[in-house]
Amino acid sequence: MGIVLKQSFTNTLILFLGFAIGGINVLFLYTHFLHEDYFGLITFLLSAANIILPLLVFGMQHTIIKYYTSYKTKIEQDGFLITTLILPLVVIIPLALIGTLFYQSIANWLSSENILIKDYTYLIFITAIFMGYFEVFYSWTKVQYNSVFGNFIKEIFTRICTSFLLIAVYFNWLTNEQFIYAVVIVYGIRTLIMKLYAMYVYMPKLVFKIPANLKEILSFSLYIIIAGSASGILLEIDKFMIPQIEKIAEVAYYSVGIYIASVVAIPTRAMQQITNPITAKEMNSNNIIEVEKLYKQSSINLLVVGGLLFLLINLNITDVYEIINKPEYTKGIWIVLIISIAKIMELALGTGNAILVNSKFYKIFFYLSLAMAVSVIILNRWLIGLIGINGAAMATLIVVLVYGFIKIMFIKSKLKIQPFSKNTFKVLVVITAVYFIIDFWDFGLYPIFNILLKGILITAVYLVLIKRLRISEDLNKLFAKYF
Hints:
- The protein is mostly helical.
- The chain is 81% helix and 0% strand.
- Helix 1 packs parallel to helix 7, helix 9 runs parallel beside helix 16 and helix 14 runs parallel beside helix 17.
């Protein structure tokens, strides 16, 4: 796992830095500089764009990962890459025409509960195009095993620009309304930078050669469009549906809780940048032994690192909200625990999703994703109406746990591999034990000092237990090297 650990480590550092900048934005700048209705609005617009993103780019970001390594000549590879830029236009152009004709109806539907949304509805489509082509160009670099720069642009560039824009709002250089448009422009600039870098890493010749397996590519892409949209629904539908049931300001409260909990998923996001193309390569070569090795290693390593983040967040969450110093935002405090448990399940899955997408059973990923999307919509509609924004978090947790288990069992039945070992049980016991033991500790100091002291205590106890129990071979090597 040399290249995996090296790029995963760099990507993790980038993600942590990005999340730190994003944390400043979400926990302090957004909450104090931007009106909460506009905070809810920009969250809604970006979530809606993420939902339709796979459709607009025809699933090409995943198609590149799956098929690029299957072509053996440069002409085939170049023709394939050019095709991945053209195919999305087959979807984008007709949808743009349809959207123009029915714009008022769409805008009225989306703004039925919150009229603020109406004037900004068209930005969803534009932002989704920017986001989609960014992912396509990012995939170009991933298949060259170069994921670091794209990760930097994705995680840090956008957030730094957002920080400056929020500061501009504070000094009245921008209005709340102008801020919304400025964020969309940032996403456009981000896509342009990624395009230039992708062509610097690998410049294909302008070859208009239709891939020999175009029918197979179209079939895969159609499934991935729906699966990707379904995955987007799972991630974003809560922030999309809340304004249809509650006041748009509730999205802002929910988003803060979601953002804090999403820190737990940093390790898996970092590792996926490099493990996904490697998994695709090994699956194309039918090298199940290496696939299983990566499956197991990724699962236990992600659980160990994610477990520490889970503890650091949830054992300090009260102090975090005290530092934010916005009482109305404490509505999201239970959301943090609920969603971070869901993230632990995603970590345990390791490279499971990559295995499904890149195997001959990729259609099951489509059916599972579709079922997850339908389930989370039904549960959101019921639980948000029943218990408010906490219901949205519960809907996500239920769906992630149930369908995560189904994915693991399906891979085991078809490929005879699974990610767990006795060390999985050990790390879960360690996480649970540390949580309940330290949960009762309170130093009674100013919140930031409480967080520092408790963070040191949690980290020390957790890492000692992980090392003593020899839970992760890879992490033990890192301990031996640096300590």
